[in-house]
Each structure stands twice: as C-alpha cells, then as structure tokens.
C-alpha cells in the first residue's frame, strides 16, 4: 500500500508525502489502523496550516463513528447487491429479506459477498466503488475494512482478521486462532494439538438449528467426536437431557458417573430365569464395536469400552413376554438421573417409567452429568 497523504492547504493547493519519507514513520504507513496525521517531516519544514489539516482529517475519519449501520454491523456505508441491484445495510440484511418465508422459493438467494462492487456513503449518499474512504466527503466508512471480503465494520472491539485459508474474515484476534487445513476452518489455539480432525467439519449446517456453521456469527464449539455445533445449541441439548452427538451418537460429555449409577441398578435388578442367559448383539456408539452381551432390561454394557453402553444400537430384536416383563419392576431412579432421549409412560400398578427412544430399553428418571 502506497502511503499517500493529501490535504488542502489553500483553495487549490495540496501536498503529497513521498513514500521514501513516510516509510520512516509507522503512523503514515497504514490507513486502516489510524486516522490520517500530518507528517512530522513536513511540520519541521514549516508547512503552513498542517496542524489544521491534520485536525480536519481526524474529524473526517471519526465523523459519524458508530452512528450508522444495522443490527449486524456498525458502518458508515450501505452496499448495492450485485445479484438483485438493490441497496441494503449489509449482506445479512439482504439474506434475511431475500430468504424470507414470504418470498417465492424460486426468487430466494444469498448475496455473493465477494462480487460486491458498489457502496453508498451513509453521510453524503454518494455511490462509488468499494473503498474505505468516501471519494466525495472523505469520511472513513469503517475502521475495519477488508477489500477481499468487502467487509466494513466500525466496531473493532471484535478484533476482526482475514483468514486466507477460510477465505473470509473471522473475529477474536488472529493470535488466538489457527487454521486447520483438514477441517478447513479456524479453531482456538487451545485445540491445535488436541482436536479430532474431521474433513470439512464446519462446512455443514448445525445439527440442531440448521444454520450454516461456516458463515455463522454465533459461537461454534467442537464436540469430542470432532463434529461441530453451536455453543448455545449444545447447551440447549443439555437442558433437554440429550447427551449424544446428533450426527454420530457418541457421548458429548463424560458419562462415567451416570453409567456407574446404572451399573449399580443392574446389580440390584435381577432378571427372571428365562432371560438370565439371553444375549443380544449391540453396536457401541462410543467405540464402534459390535459385541454380544448379556441382555438386561436396564441397559447393556459394552465390554470393549469398559463402561455401560447407555449409547448403543441393538442389532437384533426379540419379544419379551408381557406377563414376565411386568413382574420385573424397572427401577425408579432419582430425578437427577436420566438416560436421555426418554419419553415417560404409565404401566401397570400406576408406576411411571422412562423408555429410551434410542435403544427401546426402559430406565427411569432423568439424567445428570458433568458440565462440558
């Protein structure tokens, strides 16, 4: 970027600070980080009115700062959408309007952000090519400006940065994130040597709310299985006692304490003689192993994973004789204890049980679990 400073000294006079001179002054080299200031070398040479020029430039830089924009970005310009030739405050405003449920399905579309060519200054209304400074009134249209993404934002507290690997701008500070080439997204440096790589982990919709994660403005977290999900959606799953990944059914938190409680319930709930030697084939969702285990009405235990497989798929089915089943009274577990994916129903003797919708094995109560 050439460092050029232009200022009106008289009605028809201007000066330009040469690149060789300004290269010695860091403040003159980057227009994106600071307002335009007068060059110290020019002041030493006795240029008339340079202090006034610098003050005027600073006023133009900060004029209207944080006063314009929308709910998504604070900026001093609007964009003209290249797809429909309409004017919007930002690309999110465009997408919300053009993807509205009331819009004809054939007309719904997202704005191609990298193809934006024209912007309109919010202060003077001048339409111009994409740039950080208005060609008419000289106001800075955003303190953070990315020419590649055509992104304008006055709120620099979010510490925006452009990632060439992702091809878009991210928030949070470049020093706090790294780009994983296999996952094709940016993760926190805390996960640099510990996260499980999943090809294109962020290039899909959130399994709960179905928002496209790669371009989402909400916080995204990585589950132990490597799949990604909105942080708020993961918290909402926990509030509804769902502790398995919606995509692969692996546990999303440490369930060992819950499984220990289930193990105690199995030991205290003997099966009738006709089912004590009954075995079933299960597929453990956590370790992915197919095994034959002894059947129990409470839960099945994976011998490979060495924990109760509260998350499993039964690979074979058989019919329990109802009279014998009713003589086996499934335990009513504490309210802080649950299997998840459970639906309550009433059986004989007015006892309320909880039947797991995933494995169709009855257990009771609600589940607790460690915070993730």
TrEMBL record:
<dbReference type="GO" id="GO:0061630">
    <property type="term" value="F:ubiquitin protein ligase activity"/>
</dbReference>
<feature type="domain" description="CTCHY-type">
    <location>
        <begin position="141"/>
        <end position="205"/>
    </location>
</feature>
<dbReference type="GO" id="GO:0006511">
    <property type="term" value="P:ubiquitin-dependent protein catabolic process"/>
</dbReference>
<dbReference type="InterPro" id="IPR017921">
    <property type="entry name" value="Znf_CTCHY"/>
</dbReference>
<dbReference type="Pfam" id="PF14599">
    <property type="entry name" value="zinc_ribbon_6"/>
</dbReference>
<dbReference type="GO" id="GO:0016567">
    <property type="term" value="P:protein ubiquitination"/>
</dbReference>
<dbReference type="Pfam" id="PF05495">
    <property type="entry name" value="zf-CHY"/>
</dbReference>
<feature type="domain" description="CHY-type">
    <location>
        <begin position="63"/>
        <end position="139"/>
    </location>
</feature>
<keyword id="KW-0863">Zinc-finger</keyword>
<dbReference type="InterPro" id="IPR008913">
    <property type="entry name" value="Znf_CHY"/>
</dbReference>
<dbReference type="GO" id="GO:0005634">
    <property type="term" value="C:nucleus"/>
</dbReference>
<keyword id="KW-0862">Zinc</keyword>
<dbReference type="Pfam" id="PF13639">
    <property type="entry name" value="zf-RING_2"/>
</dbReference>
<keyword id="KW-0479">Metal-binding</keyword>
<dbReference type="InterPro" id="IPR013083">
    <property type="entry name" value="Znf_RING/FYVE/PHD"/>
</dbReference>
<dbReference type="GO" id="GO:0008270">
    <property type="term" value="F:zinc ion binding"/>
</dbReference>
<dbReference type="InterPro" id="IPR001841">
    <property type="entry name" value="Znf_RING"/>
</dbReference>
<dbReference type="InterPro" id="IPR039512">
    <property type="entry name" value="RCHY1_zinc-ribbon"/>
</dbReference>
<protein>
    <submittedName>
        <fullName>Uncharacterized protein</fullName>
    </submittedName>
</protein>
<dbReference type="InterPro" id="IPR037274">
    <property type="entry name" value="Znf_CHY_sf"/>
</dbReference>
<dbReference type="InterPro" id="IPR037275">
    <property type="entry name" value="Znf_CTCHY_sf"/>
</dbReference>
<feature type="domain" description="RING-type">
    <location>
        <begin position="206"/>
        <end position="249"/>
    </location>
</feature>
């Amino acid at each position: 970027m050439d460092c050029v400073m232009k200022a009106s000294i008289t009605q028809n006079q201007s000066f330009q600070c040469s690149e060789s001179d300004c290269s010695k002054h860091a403040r003159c080299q980057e227009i994106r980080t600071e307002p335009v200031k007068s060059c110290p070398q020019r002041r030493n040479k006795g240029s008339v009115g340079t202090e006034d020029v610098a003050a005027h430039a600073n006023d133009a830089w900060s004029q209207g700062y944080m006063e314009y924009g929308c709910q998504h970005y604070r900026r001093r310009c609007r964009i003209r959408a290249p797809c429909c030739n309409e004017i919007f405050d930002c690309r999110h405003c465009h997408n919300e309007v053009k993807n509205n449920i009331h819009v004809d399905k054939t007309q719904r579309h997202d704005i191609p952000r990298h193809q934006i060519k024209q912007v309109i200054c919010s202060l003077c209304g001048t339409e111009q090519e994409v740039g950080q400074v208005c060609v008419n009134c000289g106001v800075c249209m955003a303190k953070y400006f990315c020419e590649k993404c055509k992104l304008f934002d006055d709120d620099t507290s979010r510490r925006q940065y452009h990632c060439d690997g992702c091809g878009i701008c991210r928030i949070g500070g470049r020093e706090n994130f790294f780009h994983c080439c296999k996952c094709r997204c940016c993760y926190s440096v805390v996960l640099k040597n510990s996260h499980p790589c999943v090809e294109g982990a962020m290039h899909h919709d959130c399994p709960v709310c179905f928002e496209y994660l790669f371009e989402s403005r909400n916080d995204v977290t990585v589950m132990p299985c490597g799949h990604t999900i909105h942080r708020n959606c993961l918290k909402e799953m926990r509030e509804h006692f769902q502790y398995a990944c919606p995509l692969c059914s692996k546990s999303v938190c440490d369930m060992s304490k819950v499984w220990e409680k289930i193990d105690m319930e199995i030991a205290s709930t003997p099966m009738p003689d006709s089912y004590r030697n009954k075995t079933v084939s299960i597929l453990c969702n956590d370790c992915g192993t197919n095994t034959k285990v002894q059947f129990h009405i409470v839960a099945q235990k994976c011998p490979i994973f060495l924990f109760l497989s509260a998350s499993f798929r039964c690979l074979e089915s058989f019919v329990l004789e109802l009279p014998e089943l009713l003589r086996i009274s499934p335990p009513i577990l504490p309210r802080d204890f649950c299997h998840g994916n459970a639906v309550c129903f009433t059986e004989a003797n007015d006892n309320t049980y909880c039947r797991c919708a995933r494995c169709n094995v009855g257990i009771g109560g609600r589940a607790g679990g460690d915070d993730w």
